[in-house]
């Protein structure tokens, strides 16, 4: 049901309201929250957005890091992908990892990027 913007007190404890109990004011709060999130998403670049968004609990953070490390390790250029889009995808993975506290050195990232290129790029990779 989204963030705890809509809550009520039950037995001295604050709990989320079920949707069928939302008032007009509750719906207005949720609508304003959605608009604010949308504006943040539209204004910030993906790298900046990762820095300011909610990371969740440590368990959620570790899960995200684990998933992104797996993506990083399995990273390959797709057949129908340009070098620019591949590098952008790679940068998004590494920047998100960095914002979560896991980073790789520039040399490690460069080597990984070069290894992810298809066989057709071998002469260029060897030259580099």
TrEMBL record:
This is UBN2 domain-containing protein.
